[in-house]
Amino acid sequence: MSSQSVVLRRRPTGAPSRDDFDVVSGEIPAPGPGEVVVRNIFLSIDPYMRGRLSERKSYANPVQIGEVMEGETIGEIVASNAHGYDLGEIVVGARGWQTHTCCKATTLTRITPGGAPLSTYLGVLGMPGTTAYTGMTDVGRTKPGETVVISAASGAVGSVAGQLAKRAGARVVGIAGGPDKCLFVQEGLGFDACVDHRSSDLDAALADTCPDGVDVYFENVGGAVQAAVFAKLNVFARVIMCGMVSQYNAAELPPGPNLGFMVAKRVHMQGILVSDKPERFAEWRGLAAPWVADGSLAYRETIIDGLENAPEALAMVLNGDNFGKMVVRVGPD
Ligand SMILES: NC(=O)c1ccc[n+]([C@@H]2O[C@H](COP(=O)([O-])OP(=O)(O)OC[C@H]3O[C@@H](n4cnc5c(N)ncnc54)[C@H](OP(=O)(O)O)[C@@H]3O)[C@@H](O)[C@H]2O)c1
Fold this sequence. Notes:
Blueprint: E1 2-8, E2 21-27, E3 35-44, H1 49-52, E4 72-80, E5 90-95, E6 100-104, E7 109-111, H2 127-140, E8 147-151, H3 156-167, E9 171-176, H4 179-188, E10 193-196, H5 202-209, E11 214-219, H6 223-230, E12 233-241, H7 261-265, E13 268-271, H8 279-293, E14 301-305, H9 310-319, E15 325-329
Parallel strand pairs: 8-9, 8-11, 9-10, 11-12, 12-13, 14-15
Antiparallel strand pairs: 1-2, 3-4, 3-6, 3-15, 4-5, 5-7
Helix pairs in contact: 2-3, 2-8
The structure holds NADP nicotinamide-adenine-dinucleotide phosphate.
């Protein structure tokens, strides 16, 4: 049996496209000692992948030309040379834009099927959900009655961050692109308000929806949205610096904001990386799985069929054409 992989052909300029990648076929390797082969079912598509396509200095090494593109999958063990890892087991944590992954079994997490849909272990119950939980727990520390603003509010991270703030008793305002996403943020996720950053006068809309200013801002996008929210931050506000997706396709980074206001307002702003606290993944799954099961934690997904369509899926995430967590269906469930 052969496997397919998507490898990097060239480094994209601006938005990535199909032409930046090649789809190649090869033999599925036999697993070495302690290894298993996973048949990937779903591949997670995430904004961080744009950074792996660039040689710009980052917290992680870039994918090299000719290498398999980076990404997390959920799939089924189809060959095992690792004690205690059986054929047919469902595991999350295999990596690569490929139909089959040969890897050390100890890098994988077993999932008991039959609970939530498998794709959710890459989204609401996986890395993006854990990111939201980490940011709100470590930096947001929301108190009842505070105003919390979430950018990319309908997305994989933002949708969870806002629902956690609601559970903490905050008034939650989302920022999202377009009327459909804003409607979902309010009616599907239960936020108190949502600002459409594509059509609104952001300053006026934030003044309207955040009359008492902003106590916590969960930053996912940067750019014009960031500038508008920063201007509304209250004294002792907390800012979770999670990502700035509006810049990921940019060849040159725009000049930074003037952060002088942070002094007078004693703003606490902290970057977070979900990988810093691996123990949070299991902690979050344990907390959130019952909420997903009873429907009290809402989520939305965009599922694209076919590994060869992964480059388009990544381009969609970077320009807002996804609606919720983006995953690619690599093989049958
Ligand atoms: N620090 C960490 O450990 C960590 C881990 C995971 C994710 N992240 C970051 O979290 C953020 C959200 O990730 P996600 O996976 O949840 O993605 P997502 O929100 O599901 O998708 C990205 C969204 O960004 C919005 N966007 C794109 N370009 C924009 C622009 N120019 N201005 C405003 N909004 C824009 C779009 O939503 P709209 O259509 O609503 O504008 C798009 O749907 C990203 O910055 C990502 O890098 C960080």
